[in-house]
Design brief:
Its main location: cytoplasm. β7 and β8 form a beta hairpin. This protein is mainly beta. The chain has a single domain, classed as Immunoglobulin-like (Sandwich), CATH 2.60.40.10. It is built from no helices and eight strands. Helices cover 0% and strands 44% of the residues. The model has no long low-confidence stretch (mean pLDDT 95). It starts with 5 loop residues before the first strand and ends with a strand. It is elongated.
Length: 86
């Protein structure tokens, strides 16, 4: 299985409280396994507040819904040994 790398990393975002914010990270291969999103070192799950999806097979997205001050911090995307932060 080929080593999946990050082709295009996360970008820093600034949004207003109550808005949604979307982070995108592009990887080198489709169907990447061992993928993880974190906010302040806490693993995020796909639920009503966090939408985690994959577009076109290689673009992994995280949308945080109706952000609050508690959502301020570092977002980390990890695939295998590679990470990107914003």
């Amino acid at each position: 299985e080929p080593d999946v790398t990050i082709v295009s990393g996360l970008k820093d975002m600034a949004v207003f409280e109550g808005d949604d914010v979307t982070f995108r990270c592009q990887v080198s291969h489709e169907n990447a396994r061992d993928v993880e999103w974190k906010l302040q070192d806490v693993a995020l799950q796909n639920n009503e507040m966090n939408e985690i999806s994959v577009e076109k097979g290689k673009i992994h997205t995280l949308t945080l819904r109706k952000v609050t001050e508690q959502d301020i911090g570092t977002i980390t995307f990890r695939v295998g040994p590679h990470t990107s932060t914003a």
